[in-house]
Design a protein that fits this description.
The structure is a homodimer of 116-residue chains. Chain A is built from five helices and two strands. With 116 residues, chain A is mainly α. The radius of gyration of chain A is 17 Å and the shape is globular. The first copy, chain A, has one domain: Winged helix-like DNA-binding domain superfamily/Winged helix DNA-binding domain (Arc Repressor Mutant, subunit A, Orthogonal Bundle). At the A-B interface, helix 1, helix 2 and helix 5 of A face helix 1, helix 2 and helix 5 of B. The structure holds a DNA duplex (30 and 30 nucleotides).
Chain lengths: 116, 116
Amino acid sequence: MTSTENHNLENHSSQMRKGILEFCILLIIRTTPGIYAPDILRRLKDIDMIVVEGTIYPLLSRLKRENILEYSWEESMSGPPRKLYALTPKGKDMLGQLVLNWKSLSSSITSLLRHE
Amino acid sequence: MTSTENHNLENHSSQMRKGILEFCILLIIRTTPGIYAPDILRRLKDIDMIVVEGTIYPLLSRLKRENILEYSWEESMSGPPRKLYALTPKGKDMLGQLVLNWKSLSSSITSLLRHE
DNA sequence: GCATAGTACTTTGTATTGCAAGGTACTATG
DNA sequence: CATAGTACCTTGCAATACAAAGTACTATGC
């Protein structure tokens, strides 16, 4: 495999994630309110979504700025304080809508897959 | 609803599509080899994926350049000639991989949704 | 007290993607 | 020849994900 082809494959894999990433993060936070960034990264890794800090921190900041997420501080025994994230009411509404979008998209793709 | 909030909603809806778009286009072409761009746009619209020309033409060109798609020309009675797209063998391999990725992602999200 | 390592969060620069808007070129119609 | 319809392409912009480097807090070893 050439380095170009390798780059293409990585590129396509990462493209598949785009947009879905934010959706997954919101789902994880809804499932586990009070979670902090490193644990979100671990949960994403568990579902084969490798994401790095430089991706997730600006995303969490933006969602906070947009009043979709809120956080509280927690002192840590082993390092700097942690930001514990939870959905705001607006975030819950938005996630509800995203879930509907996901189900619609997922069902359309399933129907395209039926032609395999 | 303020214009800012409206912008956010549109933004989030469009983000949900990112990356999935290429996957859907490849699925559509596999289902209907010899399809041309305006018909791909119509099929995307049918599954609630509104996409514009300025998005799809550069994407198709890139996939051609990467040897994932190929096309042949067809004369048209009612305008300029059309590019009829089909998957190359490499494109079929890649789509097969993307389908596996999709199934894995989809099953992970389904499991996150179970906590609703 | 001070250097080191580990943890948590942040910032900067770059590449890629999708979109809006506008452009080129072909055909049919009046 | 002008207009409308169709098909394809290009340009400039905003948003996202990443790599890499930076800041700041705590615990440990000396």
